[in-house]
Each structure stands twice: as structure tokens, then as C-alpha cells.
From TrEMBL:
Chain residue ranges for the region called Disordered: 125-146
A Pfam family matched in the record: Ribosomal_L3
One Gene Ontology CC term in the entry: cytosolic large ribosomal subunit
Recorded name of the encoding gene: rplC
NCBIfam families: L3_bact
Entry-linked HAMAP family: Ribosomal_uL3_B (MF_01325_B)
Biological process, per Gene Ontology: translation
Protein name as catalogued: Large ribosomal subunit protein uL3
InterPro entries: Ribosomal_uL3, Ribosomal_uL3_bac/org-type, Transl_B-barrel_sf
Organism this protein belongs to: Thermoleophilum album
Gene Ontology MF term list: rRNA binding; structural constituent of ribosome
Superkingdom field: Bacteria
């Protein structure tokens, strides 16, 4: 198994063995339960479906409850698939953070970035603003979006104002600094996408 589901708790600082200060993100990773196993000969690919965060039964719909009862696991809020070799894992198995990760490993973390709402071109794409003096009326406007008579249209993909954030983002190359098995905590160096309390997928890179 090369990954687990978790939740972002926030950021803090740690002093390393060399005395240098490191900025780390604290993730609550696991425990996760195996809710389904996909195999090449039956499903066309190898993968493990994991469930995370037990909840009350009334929170889930009946199809989800039936699926989880069949797997013999508690009601779980989040289900995700992790592709890769299945190995000896069976449905109903419980996975904890210390079984998958150890200090020094390089991981990638996927999550939903913080939504910023509707933003202009300066914040969304890093456009340069216009002059603020000498009668300029083009301070934060996007400028020209194309020619007039020819081609008589706006090309697709033009960078313009619009909704920013709130999409899936993967941060790669994060080093595991510390694993705290008693509290299901994983501390990784650097920042992780998403708000505090946001769900994340943590996968080993190497």
C-alpha cells in the first residue's frame, strides 16, 4: 500500500537535529479501512479503495451504508481509490499511519485548494496593472482581448477574470519529518493544499 487518507490540521515549526528550524504541516492520517479491492483480471486494473473518518449512520445514504456493511467496516465519510499493486490486503483490513509512512520518505499530497471566489486578472494570473496617474483609466483592467474585424472573435483559452481556487492540487516532493503513531499524526516539511480541516490524500513518491 502506497498511500492513506487524512485531514490537514495546520502548520507549525520544528527544530531539526542540526538545529535548523523547519516549517511543517501537521496531517492526521488514518486510520483507514479497506472497503474494496480492484483486481486486473476482474476490474481491468489493480487498486485499493480506502475509507476514512467514522461518522453516524444517518449521515450516509443507503447505498453507501450497504457497501460499507458488506465490507464489514464502520460508517465512513470519505472513500477514495489508490491505484497500484494490491498485495495481500483484504477487504475490512485497517491501515494506520506507521504501517505506510516513516521519517525521511518523500510523499505527494493531494487536496482541494482554498477557494478565492471571482478574481480579476491581476490576482488570478499575475497581470501588471496600468499607470495610476496622468489621467489613466486603465489601472486594473485586463487590456485588449483580441483584434476587431479579423478574426472577429476572442480566442479560446485567453487568460481573463474568473473563479480562482477550489480545485484539486497536488504538492510533490514533501519530506516526512516525523510520525506520531499514538495520535495518527504525520508531519511533512512545507505546505499542503487546502484549508485547515480539509481532506487530503497522501501517497509515497519514493
Amino acid at each position: 500500500m502506497n498511500g492513506l487518507l487524512g485531514k490537514k490540521l495546520g502548520m507549525t515549526q520544528l527544530f531539526g537535529e542540526d538545529g535548523k528550524l523547519e516549517r511543517v504541516t501537521v496531517l492526521e492520517v488514518g486510520p483507514c479501512w479497506v472497503t474494496a479491492v480492484r483486481r486486473e483480471e476482474r476490474d481491468g486494473y489493480d487498486a485499493i479503495q480506502l475509507g476514512y473518518e467514522p461518522v453516524r449512520e444517518k449521515v450516509l445514504n443507503r447505498p453507501r451504508l450497504g457497501h460499507l456493511r458488506k465490507a464489514g467496516v464502520p460508517p465512513l465519510r470519505l472513500l477514495r481509490e489508490f491505484r497500484g499493486p494490491v498485495g495481500e490486503l483484504e477487504v475490512g483490513a485497517e491501515l494506520r499511519v506507521e504501517q505506510v509512512f516513516e521519517p525521511g520518505q518523500i510523499v505527494k499530497v493531494s487536496g482541494t485548494s482554498i477557494g478565492k471566489g471571482f478574481q480579476g486578472t491581476i490576482r488570478r494570473h499575475g497581470f501588471q496593472r496600468g499607470p495610476e496617474t496622468h489621467g489613466s483609466r486603465n489601472i486594473r483592467k485586463p487590456g485588449s482581448i483580441g483584434a476587431a474585424a479579423d478574426p472577429s472573435r476572442v480566442f479560446k483559452g485567453l487568460r481573463m477574470a474568473g473563479r480562482m481556487g477550489g480545485g484539486r492540487v497536488t504538492q510533490r516532493g514533501l519530506r516526512v519529518v516525523q510520525v506520531v503513531p499514538d495520535e495518527n499524526l504525520l508531519l511533512v516539511r512545507g505546505s499542503v493544499p487546502g484549508p485547515r480541516g480539509g481532506y487530503v490524500e497522501v501517497r509515497r513518491e519514493r
